[in-house]
């Protein structure tokens, strides 16, 4: 019987949740959730100088925004240092590691000599097979005994079999001279102790897999399934960086992209399921598999992101959308909606969400429902207002006071009124948009009237006519 799937995301808390890290977390989350497995979170905070609580908080907030929930507590790698050291000492006791007393100067001299003689500069310690009786009373590191013949094969689910000659592997340090474990050891011990079955991570870690396999095999532990995913590039084909725009997941929240659209886009960034572009979380969990991940770097495309986000906004539940917009306003440090605005926004959502790709676009369309009287038209809308249109709108007001407030009746009333004025309704639409919304581009006049209600609609017309 196969073991339950356990994946993990293991970021270093030295900054925000990078968009590449967010995709790695998503792939791990989808793989576990689609198989009824566990998705664990480990903070690799062994670099004490660069790790900060603020960065950890930013990573957790970014994952929360993306809806990537993890199982169990967040694990701190630093707190496992004693356990990591214990494994190094076990390997030492088993003769699979050794004490190396070489100084930095000794290693530098070795490399200079090897380079001058045209030999490999990979350090070969003279202490590997030294008699313990000859050990000096001096500081030492613990090194693993790397295999020196044959080859190590990384059986990778994305890259295929990757073979590395064992004479290219050095006797990696496990424990520094101050007794602290190195990152490579900590990762393996943590993954083993956490029961991780699948390691899905960036392909910049591919070479690390060969070195980490030395520890798994020396300890007699099961090697996890490897899946090293290509990095994300910018539109120009170069590694994604600040020059391409925002890099942090939370920056995208603050720019007003919906989380569902971001998840969909990141899932498609380097992974595919036939020709499917737009899909739900449930579909992504059902479909996601490692054989759908491409070997080439994916290119980040803002237009595709916006297109998918627009599709997700259009199918979102109105109440959920309102809540996410309120979270966006907080993330962007913009003024919050009051209770009335919040209710009005949700009521108007049906006529707002079809063509908005981001929350700022949706809020701009919602201006008519969020603004309070008197409505000040912007420069473009003001051009539609003249003394003639003001007079016509003044004549319309009493007719609206007596109309039944439903779409069919409003359309009939306004069309009949336009005909009586010797014009078409289209000619009235511009001035009505200016008066009701203060904008030239808005939802339909009828939708705005229905959302605002009779009293507010008439009041805005009266203000303009006055």
Automatic annotation (TrEMBL):
Key words, A-Z: Aminoacyl-tRNA synthetase, ATP-binding, Cytoplasm, Ligase, Nucleotide-binding, Protein biosynthesis
Name of the gene encoding the protein in the UniProt record: gltX
Sequence positions that bind ATP: 242
Subunit: Monomer.
Function statement: Catalyzes the attachment of glutamate to tRNA(Glu) in a two-step reaction: glutamate is first activated by ATP to form Glu-AMP and then transferred to the acceptor end of tRNA(Glu).
Domain named Aminoacyl-tRNA synthetase class I anticodon-binding: residues: 329-464
Chain positions of motif 'KMSKS' region: 239-243
Enzyme Commission code(s) on record: 6.1.1.17
Alphabetized CDD domains for the sequence: GluRS_core
A molecular-function term among this protein's GO annotations: glutamate-tRNA ligase activity
Pfam families in UniProt: Anticodon_2, tRNA-synt_1c
InterPro entries: aa-tRNA-synth_I_cd-bd (IPR045462), aa-tRNA-synth_I_codon-bd_sub2 (IPR020751), aa-tRNA-synth_I_CS (IPR001412), aa_tRNA-synth_I_cd-bd_sf (IPR008925), Glu-tRNA-ligase_bac/mito (IPR004527), Glu/Gln-tRNA-synth (IPR000924), Glu/Gln-tRNA-synth_Ib_cat-dom (IPR020058), GluQ/Sye (IPR049940)
Family label: Belongs to the class-I aminoacyl-tRNA synthetase family. Glutamate--tRNA ligase type 1 subfamily.
Record domain Glutamyl/glutaminyl-tRNA synthetase class Ib catalytic: where: 5-306
HAMAP family in UniProt: Glu_tRNA_synth_type1
Enzymatic reactions: tRNA(Glu) + L-glutamate + ATP = L-glutamyl-tRNA(Glu) + AMP + diphosphate
This protein's name: Glutamate--tRNA ligase
Segment forming the signal sequence: none
Main subcellular localisation: cytoplasm
Keyword presence, Zinc: no
Motif ('HIGH' region): 11-21
Cellular localisation: Cytoplasm
